[in-house]
Write a structure and sequence with these properties.
Blueprint lengths: L4 H4 L1 H4 L6 E16 L5 H18 L19 E7 L14 E9 L5 H14 L9 E16 L5 H14 L2 E3 L4 E5 L12 E10 L2
Antiparallel strand pairs: 1-3, 1-4, 2-3, 2-6, 4-7, 5-7, 6-7
Helix pairs in contact: 3-4
Amino acid sequence: MKYEWRKQAKELYLPKNKPEIVTVPSFKFFMIDGKGNPNSEDFSEAIGVLYSLSYALKMLPKKGIIPDGYFDYTVFPLEGIWDLAEEARTLDTLDKSKLIYTIMIRQPDFVTDDLAQEVIEIVKKKKPHPLLDKVKFNTSDDGLCIQMLHLGSYDDEPQTFSIMENYCEQNNLKRSSKIHREIYISDARKTQPDKLKTVLRFKIEHDK
């Protein structure tokens, strides 16, 4: 049976547009670190590299390579962990050039470090790109979080974060870090800004 994240992992990728608490397990990702405005060409290039790796891995059986434990699956959505450079945290308006990010695409559990490296080498030969040297294959473990589906433009996300933070205050919870995760359910290249669906998530802890 094909693993489809939209069906088998709804609780992680398709939450309601109201705050909810979730415990996120550890997952494996191809990742690229960066800094600056996400509207830049560098950011688009990094996304392209992550997708080229993800699809190369999924298509290995077509090349006659069947990794141990392989199963058919839908490629996971793009995700990003976002932070701000220290000097920009006190500014009243968001300076996108000061954003620090790690963008990533989750990979199935059967993917080992060796297999990930093998896929990177395959893509380097077929579709060389300087960013392939910056790709990391790591696990990420969010643990206890609050999440909510944000509908609309990325620029309107502060309103959704405000709802989530109010929920925390009312439920004896507190945000444990200013860093947050975004999961891009919609393809921004093909979707009107007011129709975009993005999962917003940040780590929480119980307030003492």
